[in-house]
């Protein structure tokens, strides 16, 4: 079967005040070839030049149809519903105005849909961090290419994929079940739509092809709704969307409903907690809202969550307001999770969260070494070394017998880590283990250059710990002391190497390296740009 006799697709593109980007999105849809019979662009009453851009494109491309809304809907659901109503092809595909479809995506999806008689066909998606073009796979490992899922209830973990844009939908299936997005200003409309689709029990075909590139522009003047998390109303909207989705799924399948609840605890809750920030008013409002919602969860769903998520829930429910050690909770919510000292215990030796909140860390004894939320501190030891301290965790690490530690520099733009030589760990009389690690930033910068990283390089810095029993654990570093001081290092390769260690939002050590004068100038300009962006966002 070739592309000329395949069933066709209507690609629905929604746009609001995106004149500078919508053309690229529409062009990527038109470039799919004859399998895309029409591109329906819905302009949600934009006030910039979006309408003009779309009308000019439509004049040049007969397959492009433009729907101009006279009133802004306030969200993404209503314009998508307008697109579904206007679609005439057997299949529908959704595209946002600031994203793109990779070449061949539509044809690959349609071929699988026809072959497997699937009402829904899903492909791979990536979040592309711009301007670095760092691609992060969306939900890696959730799907197996070639799979045909007869009933979503047989795969409850599918509730973790809340995207609507990486899937092809049979239009007759949408019509038969009356499947539409929530209208109006409903922030997480895809959560609800996806739950409605899964509740309708479609056959789902899976392909391995990349079918969607989701552009993430964190420094944009107007970030996307899902990234705009500085106001507690965003969290409130996410809770309401999850509540609606969970009820929809539970009514169709108890297994899907429970999986949706567990997903919230393991993913949504942790994501927002690690971005909690320091504003007392926001923290208090977030804390109250979260506790009220967690009180509605069944105990069985909390028990089904991973241990780290369970501990977070127990601490949140045990405290009416943010406790003094709330930073420990945000670090436990990070990826990888880290439980910062001190480590308190009940009278019988049972590990608990703290003396102030003696919440039992139930399940800690059963965690494998690689899942232990260990903490490793790092502080400077001269200009070319760091001293690290590996904290034990209620004796769990001591059981495994930590033997060596190895620095790992992972490029933030993606790629393989740069590994230093392993160094032997020594027991510390004060508890835990210590080691002195060479911090040869010139070698890291040179490796980055060989890999094509020019001007400023950005690295996450972590460590891998190898134990005597053959187990291992990888975690990030907690910067201490004067480690975060910017340094200009003499370099035989570059003349000068500017190194700027910094603390990420999750409290972990990261590093910017600028080799040579050109790199140093770029780093300074980049820093000024971030400062201006942060000032404007405030």
Helix residue percentage: 25-40%
Q: Architecture of the largest domain, according to CATH? A: Alpha-Beta Complex
Which segments are poorly predicted (pLDDT under 50) over 5 or more consecutive residues?
A: 530-538
Number of strands: 24
Largest sheet, in brief, is: 9 strands, mixed
Mean of residue pLDDT values: 91
Keywords: Transferase
GO molecular function, one term: hexosyltransferase activity
Protein name: Transferase
Organism: Streptomyces subrutilus
In words, what does this structure look like?
The protein is of the alpha+beta class and 538 residues long. The chain has helices spanning 22-30, 50-60, 77-86, 105-116, 171-176, 189-199, 232-252, 254-273, 280-294, 299-304, 307-318, 326-332, 396-400, 441-450, 516-537, and strands at residues 9-15, 36-43, 64-68, 91-96, 120-129, 134-137, 148-149, 167-170, 204-216, 344-345, 351-352, 376-380, 385-390, 402-411, 418-419, 423-424, 426-427, 433-438, 457-467, 472-476, 478-479, 487-491, 495-503, 509-515. The protein has 15 helices and 24 strands. Helix 7 runs parallel beside helix 9 (280-294). It starts with 8 loop residues before the first strand and ends with a helix. Keywords: Transferase.
């Amino acid at each position: 079967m070739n592309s000329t006799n395949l069933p066709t697709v209507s690609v629905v593109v929604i746009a609001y005040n995106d004149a500078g980007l919508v053309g690229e999105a529409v062009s990527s849809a038109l470039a799919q070839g004859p399998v895309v019979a029409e591109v329906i662009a819905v302009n949600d009453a934009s006030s910039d030049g979006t309408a003009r851009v779309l009308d000019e494109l439509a004049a040049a491309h007969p397959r492009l149809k433009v729907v101009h809304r006279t009133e802004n809907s306030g969200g993404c659901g209503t314009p998508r519903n307008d697109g579904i109503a206007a679609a005439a092809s057997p299949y529908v595909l959704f595209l946002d105005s600031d994203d793109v479809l990779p070449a061949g995506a539509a044809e690959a999806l349609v071929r699988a849909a026809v072959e497997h008689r699937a009402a829904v066909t899903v492909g791979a998606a990536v979040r592309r961090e711009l301007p670095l073009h760092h691609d992060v796979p969306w939900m890696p490992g959730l799907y197996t290419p070639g799979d045909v899922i007869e009933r979503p209830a047989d795969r409850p973990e599918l509730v973790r994929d809340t995207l609507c844009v990486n899937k092809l939908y049979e239009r007759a299936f949408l019509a038969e079940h009356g499947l539409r997005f929530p209208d109006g200003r409903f922030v997480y409309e895809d959560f609800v739509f996806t739950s409605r689709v899964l509740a309708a029990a479609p056959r789902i075909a899976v392909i391995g092809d990349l079918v969607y590139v989701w552009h993430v522009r964190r420094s944009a003047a107007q970030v996307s709704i899902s990234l705009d998390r500085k106001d507690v109303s965003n969290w409130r909207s996410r809770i309401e969307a999850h509540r609606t989705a969970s009820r929809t799924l539970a009514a169709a399948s108890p297994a899907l409903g429970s999986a949706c609840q567990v997903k919230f605890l393991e993913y949504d809750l942790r994501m927002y907690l690690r971005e909690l920030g320091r504003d007392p008013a926001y923290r208090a409002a977030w804390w109250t809202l979260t506790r009220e919602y967690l009180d509605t969860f069944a105990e069985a769903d909390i028990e089904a969550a991973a241990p780290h998520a369970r501990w977070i829930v127990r601490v949140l429910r045990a405290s009416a307001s943010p406790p003094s050690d709330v930073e420990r909770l945000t670090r436990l919510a990070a990826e990888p999770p880290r439980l910062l000292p001190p480590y308190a215990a009940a009278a019988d030796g049972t590990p608990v969260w703290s003396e102030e909140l003696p919440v039992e860390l139930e399940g800690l004894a059963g965690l494998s070494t690689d899942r232990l939320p260990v903490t490793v501190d790092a502080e400077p030891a001269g200009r070319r070394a760091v001293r690290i301290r590996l904290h034990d965790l209620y004796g769990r690490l001591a059981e495994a017998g930590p033997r060596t530690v190895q620095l790992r520099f992972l490029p933030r733009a993606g790629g393989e880590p740069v590994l230093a030589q392993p160094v032997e760990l020594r027991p510390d009389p004060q508890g835990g283990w210590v080691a002195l690690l060479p911090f040869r930033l010139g070698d890291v910068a040179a490796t980055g250059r060989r890999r094509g990283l020019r001007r400023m390089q950005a690295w996450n810095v972590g460590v891998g710990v190898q134990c005597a029993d053959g187990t291992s654990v990888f975690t990030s570093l907690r910067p201490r002391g004067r480690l975060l001081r910017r340094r200009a290092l003499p370099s035989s390769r570059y003349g000068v190497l500017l190194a700027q260690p910094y603390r990420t939002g999750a409290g972990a050590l990261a590093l910017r390296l600028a080799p040579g004068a050109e790199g140093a100038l770029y780093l300074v300009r980049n820093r000024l740009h971030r400062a201006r962006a942060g000032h404007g966002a405030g």
